[in-house]
Known about the structure:
This protein has no helices and eleven strands. It is mostly beta strands. Strands 2, 4, 5, 6, 9, 10 and 11 form a seven-stranded mixed beta sheet that branches.
Amino acid sequence: QVQLVESGGRLVQTGGSLRLSCAASGRTFSNYNMGWFRQAPGKERDFVAGISWSGTVYYADSVKGRFTIARDDAKSTVYLQMNSLKPEDTAVYYCAASRSRPYSTAYYNDNVYDYWGQGTQVTVSS
């Protein structure tokens, strides 16, 4: 079992920045690929960013150049740095852990993630 706890979500103005954190506990964090997803009200859950166990990163087109995913295996934590935030970034953000191999062909698919956090709310005001 892996337990994931997100933090860092809050209300921010358009153009602002936030850093989300996801702390993991349980099994060996370094073995897991980690992803960030988000779900806006009335919409499906969408892939935002992913980082493989070896550090390869992937981004949704909508956040490329604005968001950065990083991991610190020593702290069992994955981060999502979000810059130049827009109102359309408003959503509940979830982190997730996956043992899927190869991750390069599946990172965007929420079905390959085994564990999920409870989510953290990000609201971007216009």
